[in-house]
């Protein structure tokens, strides 16, 4: 694919031939400070083409920052080269000092076209093929310097880069839309449980919420899978909830005989008892697939009084803080950092303030599910934009 008016072959050049400087950051750990606007970043700070400063990103003094100045400019590109490999970000005059896991490429001309070249699958695959190290992978500066890239004329570079930038900006906007909607949903759930948002029925208030244990508003079931009647094995993901295991992990990790696995009906809640990032004591999710499947016999499966109440519990436990506060007093850590908690203990944890009126549960479910559906639609739009970007990268950049 080429824009009209451009002809002629592209010229292949090494990166070192078009950059004025290629290097990496500080090999060592600087002295940190709590009072500075200069941040020390590494490869994990390069996300979605940008530099991200997290809450745990350390700061350094202005003296250390200036001492390690790499003459970064508005045309500089950054690449993660240690641990996290191949993330590309544009430098936009942030006050950052680079660690050794970041390679910088300084140019004396607009680098947008090169930014997109470095994000193509062929270049990323080349980087992966050249990695060194057994445990922690490394991408050498030599490999980056010798990377071969195809270049058309400067006007064609500018045309391609401008067009791809439009797609890139639209993707960033779409991600912001999803982020804002997700924050809105989380705020609504939080305020619901704090009784700051209340639903009414024809201007009449619903009964006050009541504090209930999970054992009072749900029932554990131990239904197994006789004769392997149900073949779909579910995984439970902190982001995707209850999901087909092959769809989530790429293949099945279940035993061949799953007769002893637990059935999960639509609307059931599943407690995994498996630690994951942000959720050190496990996660709690509702089966929203509309299908009957099975999960590991180690999981706790329980059925709420109503689907709507289960929906609200899923949203409540979607918060890592809520989940931690509920499970922390219940879980006993074993000698090898294993988790010990039986299902009865789990269901008899702290009381939660919950709506008991079924109509109010329905109102809440309707409002939250409409917002969740909106987020789902926006996520599907994002996938389309990202696929469009991949197609254009593959066909505009040869």
How would you sum up this structure in a few lines?
The chain is α+β, with helices and mostly antiparallel strands and 398 residues long. It has helices at 15-18, 62-67, 112-118, 121-129, 141-145, 154-193, 214-217, 245-249, 307-317, 320-327, 343-347, 358-396; strands at residues 11-14, 21-24, 38-41, 46-47, 50-51, 59-60, 77-82, 84-90, 96-98, 102-106, 148-151, 200-201, 204-205, 210-212, 218-220, 234-237, 241-244, 262-264, 269-271, 284-286, 293-295, 300-304, 332-333, 339-340, 352-354.
SSE order and pairing:
Elements: E1 11-14, H1 15-18, E2 21-24, E3 38-41, E4 46-47, E5 50-51, E6 59-60, H2 62-67, E7 77-82, E8 84-90, E9 96-98, E10 102-106, H3 112-118, H4 121-129, H5 141-145, E11 148-151, H6 154-193, E12 200-201, E13 204-205, E14 210-212, H7 214-217, E15 218-220, E16 234-237, E17 241-244, H8 245-249, E18 262-264, E19 269-271, E20 284-286, E21 293-295, E22 300-304, H9 307-317, H10 320-327, E23 332-333, E24 339-340, H11 343-347, E25 352-354, H12 358-396
Parallel strand pairs: 3-9
Antiparallel strand pairs: 1-11, 2-10, 3-6, 4-5, 7-8, 7-10, 12-13, 14-25, 15-22, 16-17, 18-21, 19-20, 19-22, 23-24
């Amino acid at each position: 694919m080429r824009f009209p008016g451009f002809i002629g072959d592209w010229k292949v050049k090494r990166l070192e031939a078009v950059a004025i400087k290629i290097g990496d950051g500080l090999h060592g750990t600087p002295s940190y400070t709590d009072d500075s606007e200069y941040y020390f970043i590494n490869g994990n700070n390069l996300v979605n083409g940008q530099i991200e400063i997290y809450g745990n990103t350390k700061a350094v003094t202005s003296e250390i920052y200036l001492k390690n100045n790499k003459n970064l400019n508005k045309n500089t590109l950054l690449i993660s080269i240690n641990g996290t490999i191949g993330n590309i970000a544009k430098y936009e005059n942030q006050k950052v000092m680079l660690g050794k896991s970041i390679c910088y490429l300084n140019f004396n001309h607009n680098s947008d076209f090169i930014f997109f070249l470095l994000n193509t699958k062929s270049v990323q695959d080349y980087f992966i093929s050249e990695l060194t190290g057994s445990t922690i992978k490394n991408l050498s500066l030599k490999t980056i310097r010798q990377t071969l890239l195809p270049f058309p004329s400067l006007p064609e570079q500018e045309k391609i880069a401008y067009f791809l930038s439009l797609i890139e900006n639209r993707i960033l906007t779409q991600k912001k839309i999803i982020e804002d909607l997700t924050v809105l949903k989380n705020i609504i759930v939080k305020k619901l449980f704090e009784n700051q948002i209340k639903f009414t029925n024809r201007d009449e208030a619903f009964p006050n919420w009541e504090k209930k244990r999970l054992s009072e508003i749900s029932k554990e079931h131990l239904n197994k899978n006789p004769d392997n009647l149900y073949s779909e094995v579910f995984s439970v993901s902190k982001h995707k909830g209850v999901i087909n295991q092959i769809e989530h992990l790429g293949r099945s990790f279940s035993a061949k005989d799953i007769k002893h696995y637990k059935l999960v009906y639509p609307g059931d809640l599943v407690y995994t008892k498996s630690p994951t990032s942000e959720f050190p004591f496990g996660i709690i999710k509702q089966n929203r697939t509309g299908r009957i499947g099975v999960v590991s016999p180690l999981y706790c499966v329980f059925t709420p009084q109503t689907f709507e109440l289960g929906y609200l519990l899923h949203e409540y436990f979607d918060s890592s803080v809520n989940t931690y506060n509920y499970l922390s007093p219940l879980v006993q850590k074993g000698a090898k950092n294993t988790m010990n908690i039986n299902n009865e203990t789990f269901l008899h944890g702290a009381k939660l303030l919950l709506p008991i009126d079924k109509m109010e549960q329905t109102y809440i479910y309707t409002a939250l599910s409409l917002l969740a559906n909106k987020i789902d639609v926006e996520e599907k739009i994002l996938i389309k934009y990202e696929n469009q970007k991949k197609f254009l990268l593959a066909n505009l950049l040869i």
